[in-house]
Hints:
Blueprint: E1 2-10, H1 27-39, E2 46-47, E3 56-66, H2 72-80, E4 87-95, E5 106-116, E6 129-131, H3 137-145, E7 149-152, E8 167-178, E9 181-188, H4 195-208, H5 215-222, E10 237-244, E11 251-255, E12 259-264, H6 268-271, E13 273-281, H7 283-299, E14 304-309, E15 319-320, E16 323-324, E17 326-337, E18 349-353, H8 359-369, H9 381-389, E19 393-400, E20 403-412, E21 416-424, H10 433-447, E22 452-458, H11 462-470, E23 474-475, E24 484-489
Parallel strand pairs: 3-10, 5-6, 13-14, 21-22
Antiparallel strand pairs: 1-3, 1-4, 2-3, 5-9, 5-10, 7-8, 8-9, 11-12, 12-13, 14-24, 15-16, 17-22, 17-23, 17-24, 18-19, 19-20, 20-21
Amino acid sequence: MKRVKLVVAYDGTHYCGWQYQSNGITIEEVLNQALTALLGEPVAVIGASRTDSGVHAEGNVAVFDTESPMRADKICFAVNQRLPEDIRVLESEEVPAGWHPRKQNCVKTYEYQILNRKIAMPTRRLYAYFCYFPLDVDKMRQGAAYLLGEHDFKSFCTARGQAEETVRTIYSLDVDRDGDLIRIRVCGSGFLYNMVRIIAGTLMKVGMGVYPPEHVEEILEARDRKQAGPTAPARGLTLKHMEYETELRDSIRGENRHWAYELFQTEVREKGKAYLVIERCNDDAFDGLVSRVTHQAVRNGARQVLVCDRGGRLRTDRNYGYYRFRYSHDMAVMEKAVCQAADPVSLDVSLAAVGPGEEEAFCRLYNQVFWAVPNSAVLTAGGMNKRLASGKEGFYYVRLGEETAGFLILKQGQDCMEVDSLGIREELRRRGAARAALTLAEAMAREQGLGRMRLTAADSNAPAVRLYESMGYQRIPQERRTSSWYETDSAGYPG
């Protein structure tokens, strides 16, 4: 058994959309019939985007499973001989058995075409909506700008009778004119039912002068379908292409007037951990944000998700979608004044700056030592080089005699030397190397005229906290809720 991915293009004029319908022929039905006849076995395709009746596509994606020995890359040529002229499979390839077109991170691009002239052109009637009223493209662009980013697009969704998460992200929304043809091209993480067509209908109202551009923001904030413009006809809409994520992003940030958060994913592949920091969020959006972003992390491969809400609202006695949280740890910020007299270092400990070409070795050491340390992100050579290029951080090996005992990462502030990371190899701990390294870091701060040392430690890492306190570091008073971390796992996710 193998799974085959298809890239499908079609003219949707004569079809009742993608998904099987009892009242008319669909793209899915025609594909299933053609593939079943070709391969001699029942075939049921799974589509990525279930386009509506009359909508076209140049790059929809589908998969199916087959036991046929036919090479996956040859199926597109063979099946096209059995398909009508208005449907074509552009590409076919084998993909992993678990690859699902609707469960992968993807950027979808749609284009809506408007024929804006006094008299319609018959040859364009199937692929563009005709509008005789002159449209102001500049005002349409101004209105479109309010829709960029992550928002609740409930106003731009036709209700289907069931509860649905209506937050989506639009990465770009361009409005361009080429002669008498206006194109609205929108790229996003996903789209709600009729969302692109309602956006097009709303922007046409802006172009006509019915709505001022800033009214688009008011429509968005209303979260009420009745406030938006009409749903533009299907014939003007084409699914252009779908770009699937091949590498997991290190972080995902969402920010608007209602919330700001960042999901850190650098540990997902290696450790199965993701970290969500909620910087701010309106109370009425909080539960949905926690549920939605935690679920995204789990779908991206995280087996454990840790969340810190700066507003202190996360609760352990309730569910957030599929997930329930439990307390994990607090991150304590600790400071001390730089001593004006140098403390002696009794051990043969030194700091050696990481040189060119040593990035990979440093990262291996870092990741090995910090494997189980709370809130420690996996370090890559690429990420390390970016940090080095900023000129604000220093990366050092901690040497115990001739042996590399661990590492130290320092970050210089305005009047503070911050210890970003300090780690000693397990077999060399309890020999005083960490204490000596901190003493040397303090000497560097003194030489640079800095007055304070600062570091952060998880209170669950008791040996480290005891060491820092014994050296004069004191916890900075802060509200517990701003530093508390809670964790959940993927056990509740149905898959």
